[in-house]
Model the fold of this input.
Amino acid sequence: MINATGNRMTQEIQRQSRMAQRIADKQVQISTGKRLQRASDNPVATTRISDLARSQANDTARASNINLGISLTSQADGSLRQMSALLARAKELTLAGANAATSATDRGTIAVELASLADEIDSMALVKAANDQPLFASGSNMAIRFDDNSIFAPVPTRAEVFEVGGVSISQTIRDTATAIAAGNMAQVAAGNTAVDGAINHASDMIAVVGLNAARLDRLNENSALRAISTAEERSALEDTDLSAAIAELNGMTLTLEAAQAAFARINRRTLMDFLS
Done:
């Protein structure tokens, strides 16, 4: 009889200890906001959370690349539009220089302004981006990975932008300025045609950069949606449902307190109570 009673008491103590441990675990889940504290809590969920964490790290890096690409295309678009405006002015000056009625003094003034425009275009070719790297690469462009299936250079190279047929646009303008100053009308006519080509080329480059910018905007939207979906899945697996956890904690606490009270009442009985 005494041995049986002792065994029941031991079992009850162990049961209450287990319940107290579950309460402590639940309190940790509530305080940390994390439902899983160790891999053994749910091995399958823990593995999935690890996969999602790696995916989030990759998404963060790629989002950074996308933002860089957006910044580069925005800056390149501004530079190209500025160059387009300069070329439009060069066209006006070339037409004025091609006019036989233009005086030698005026042709000299036109040539000086054209040379100044060429210098500005050369400066644009050397501009740096926010990452302190050349906006327009002097050699081959370094492609950037934006997602698993998208790797491309957001901005054309310096040669692709500032050269037409292997000749720099600035040099074309300088040659035209020299022809105008010298009154060489045949060369002026050729320069006029070359400036037209440069204007068309600038428009083409603006379109190329614009297409890349639109592509990056779509990638950015997809990246944001993927980040939200991944975060939601990870939260569902990992985070504590506070309302449910608090209700469960209160229930377990009440159950433990009731068991402890009953256990205390039973333990107040004497040996004679058990023998009688």
Q: What stands out?
A: The first strand starts at residue 144 and ends at 147. The chain has two domains: 2-35+240-275, 71-238.
